[in-house]
Input
Amino acid sequence: MQTRRQFLASTTLGAASLAIASRAGGQQITQTFSGPMEQDAYRPVKLAAKANARPSMTDAERDDLEHQIKCQCGCPLDIYTCRTTDFSCSVSPAMHADVLSLVDGGYAAKEILAAFQKVYGERVLMSPVKAGFNWLGYVLPSVAISAGALVIFILIRKWGERAAAQPAPAAIETNATRGELDAITAALKDDA
Output
């Protein structure tokens, strides 16, 4: 397990090396994750093929499904992105092979996601399931933004009412003579 400080240091060093490489000659770096990879994190996800099984989806649909499944090597990528960009990872190709066998076995996307969830738990999904306490994560940001907008609206109305309730500047009584006011007005015009 990496500490927060180690993670930030490795991320900062990775970003700096990318910037230097792009300035130095445009070399492309293929590794997308600079943290420690858990190459032994793979656990097989196998189900017996359905009777008269035919592939349940096209290659594009399968790739979309792989974007929903998180690679378990320790990187923050889905298995499609990890296997196509980080060639040092051995976990994502193995997980991809499991997806291929499940698709060829006739399983639909929901069944494949459920099989991966049964083996790895909910952490295998790129986004949490919209059920139970997880709904809070989906709903709370909208509620917070709406509440903030309501508070700002109420404050602006109160400030407007307060400004409207104040007497107009002409209604303010002053002890200045008309000549003194004319002199101030002329001085202000000269400054402009």
